[in-house]
Design brief:
6 copies of one chain form a homohexamer. With about 170 residues, the first copy, chain A, is α+β, with helices and mostly antiparallel strands. Chain A is built from 4 helices and 5 strands. Chain A has one domain: Molybdopterin cofactor biosynthesis C (MoaC) domain (Alpha-Beta Plaits), CATH 3.30.70. In chain A, about 30% of the residues lie in helices and about 30% in strands. In chain A, α2 packs antiparallel against α4. Chain A is elongated, with a radius of gyration of 18 Å. Chains A and B meet through α1, α2, α4 and β4 of A and α1, α2, α4 and β4 of B. Chains A, B, C, D, E, F: It catalyses: (8S)-3',8-cyclo-7,8-dihydroguanosine 5'-triphosphate = cyclic pyranopterin phosphate + diphosphate.
């Protein structure tokens, strides 16, 4: 099976005839792998104020989003069709609130010791945690936006370490 | 139960003591409801070219993403903790590719005839469809970004029609 | 939306451009609907004898298959991408064993009071129940065959009653 | 625990008192394992013609069925009660259309490096892919039949290679 | 179909031949229904003290358990084989901590407007919320006990109101 | 990461700031692990008599509960938010009926060869099996109680063997 290389990148999920396929990882070696994804939720100042004002509210909203993100990481292969099921050693969800521009940044970190990377687990956990915040704040602001969900870091496997600090 | 109004918006998923809660819709009336969400996937020119060049590839990638989006809409209440399960009458996923800036816009439309809106179903379908495209193209570009996932349109229920053309 | 008619049958799950789509049932009326599907499992005389000989074995194998079939019917929309989620009023799984030709016929009956038919629920329940029997007997016969899984009966909806006694 | 042998086949999923049980694989060794299952969908000439005639239709129907099959393989242990969860290295779904007798043959190939075989994953993937084709073509022919779903090949584990070319 | 009455109670999930079956609710009428279940978690004074001492800990443990309970209620028909899927209007999980005997009482309330009761949804939500507390506290006390999980209240349907204040 | 020790027990699922977290098992070693959980279902003499009297009824009720328990064990990480997904080598569910006090004791045994214990899998399997018995007997006795669900035995991992014979 051909894999993507620097010189000859290919879409590994598409076979020679252009059909979708799952990558065969039978001959890959398990290595320690980490992936970190981030995304940002931007809301109105009113919604942000409500979230911050009510007693305990921010804590419970963020914990609910964290739990949703952790569960989504574990269910990633059920959601993303060509992903492999894999045993996650760790899923962590952190939040960084910014009182100046009314945004919350979600960071999802996933780890495994397996044959494939955990980028999709991190990206999915980040997205579902962000959607949960949207859900819990949409009564105050339907126009909340999920912005710039992207992979920030990846290590392990043949391609080694990769970092995006944009 | 208090609901958000123009004059007195509240976070309906947070009770008086700041705890997360599901909204009680026992006394709400079922009405025809629609929600439309959109998001954009931005990739490198190289990844976009690969996607467009290979025989059938774009068709199969987009159909795979569509199927993932439809399945995710139906499973929304399983993923977003405080969402109500509801019977969807329709889920549609459309793609708009832009050869100039190497982006794909995903539009998800959901419909129901029920007591609650389908914003979360549309937002979740849109996000999972976009994540599926990320998954299938990440071998060629790990830096693909999911941008500006937001609600575009909503109708039905007490609050009536709402539109965001930003 | 165009629907299949006697004179002009179409593939309702394919739109004008040939793309997969979910049918929009927003404007359909809920009616009482039933569907019955059947399939047959053919095994070696040795496997069939084992199943019949061991104390209680047949009862527990068939009950396990029944439970698997009922659960699969309820999860049909999760498995068949373009199916609508719907509230099933009833799922029944019956077995007819034939000691002469070493076959077991599985019959699945599903009922709903909803806008779409329950053919897929019955077909899926029948298939998963049959696969469960395969699983539980495969140690004695890997060559077990699932034969002739088909819809037998359907009522309700615009097309009314349909029967296949082949 | 007794296992099936040539001389003394037993139903490994049934204990001494005839009760259903999961096989204990604690002491089994992980080996590379493959299983291939096949089944056939037979439809009317009219339905087959529609599938072939419409622009892109066949491609999207088969890709949708492929995605459903891959997802079902990953979820096999959720559907078949006594199956073990296992990490699949590969799931492949191929289709062979026969314009003469209006049939489509579905072939599902699964691979793992684990303690149990992947027959059930292949059989389940094949069945769900076939059911998805049924679903997408049933508007044109309710009488579509799923025929002869069976294991074709199996390798790995103590029993080694097994092949059924019937 | 025979139903349980005061004078002639039967096991409605068992048919005349003693086989498990799903109850057919095709002819039942939808009514507003509520069910309340309660259970108690008893832990060592040390574990209870840790839970209470650490900053925020109790809040996050209980919110995590609440989210798990709400999700479990929505997934009840997936877990309890002969339960009907139904649209829940409300799921609420409350906790009552008792500093004297180191117990936490979990109360789950479910509501629907449907043809069957929501006892199982309330019982399942209560159990999974309690298990989540066990999970999060087991590092400090493996001997935590779940005690007296039972239905407390039920209304709606033919049998009307029922209350258990034992 | 700090772990619970005899001298310094902590809540491993809560971080320094009191937030819920998944334990990172990246550096743990896989060992053979077993966990046994038990619980008791207490019903009225009338319900117990019905269960025992009807032909086959007890067998099918208990087998249905067993299947529900096995499936729940495999789905534990989906239900208990901070649990790790892991490959179970074995799930066994046993029942002990007591004709004198009208109780059924459920014992669930789980095994894995992995980095974390299987207590939650055993506790969850036991609870869902018990809830299934409740569901199938509730028509005859709504007041059935689930009593004393607790861990009985645990082996493997750093903490070694643990037993609770209370």
């Amino acid at each position: 099976m051909s894999n993507a290389t620097m010189d000859n990148p290919v879409l590994t999920h598409i076979d020679e005839s252009g059909q979708a396929r799952m990558v065969d990882v039978s001959n890959k070696t398990a290595t320690a792998r980490t992936a970190v994804a981030e995304g940002r939720i931007r809301m109105s100042s009113e919604a942000y104020a409500l979230l911050s004002a009510q007693q305990n509210a921010k804590g419970d909203v963020l914990n609910t989003a964290r739990i949703a993100g952790v569960l989504a990481a574990k269910r990633c292969a059920d959601l993303i069709p060509l992903c492999h099921s894999l045993p996650l050693s760790f899923v962590g969800i952190e939040f960084f609130t910014n009182d100046t521009d009314y945004t919350i940044t979600v960071r999802a970190t996933c780890r495994t010791d397996y044959k494939t990377g955990v980028e999709m687990e991190a990206m999915t956990a980040c997205s579902i945690a962000a959607l949960t915040i949207y859900d819990m704040c949409k009564a105050a602001d339907k126009g909340i936006v999920l912005e710039q969900i992207k992979l920030r870091y990846k290590s392990g496997g043949k391609s080694g370490e990769w970092r995006n600090d944009d």
